Amino acid sequence: MPFLELDTNLPDGQLPPALAQDLCAAAADILGKPAERVNVTVRSGLPMVVAGSAEPCAQLLVSSIGVVGSAEQNQRHSARFFDVLTAQLGLGPERIVIRFYPMEPWQIGKNRTVMTFL
Fold first, then answer.
1. Annotated catalytic, 56?
2. What is 2-117's CATH number?
């Protein structure tokens, strides 16, 4: 069950209208998970600094069970997420940062229990 959180200082009006849905589809493909399991949050217009500059930027947090736990996996994921984000946001790769967090099933609650028991 992947979770994507995209923070950007770009104003909402500069983002593609279907950005959250497009990120959902991209994450499903990149991480090999069904889109029905992907959760996406987009926050725009935030005060942000990346690499010491408040110029337009974005940070993506990708959390998931089993698919973001190694440097090799994340190197592949990173390249593909950067392709999506640079195209969707119109930012250069130097203005985007991606953080990967592996999760365990007991860390995600759903349907009044945790994923361990589903």
1. no
2. 3.30.429.10
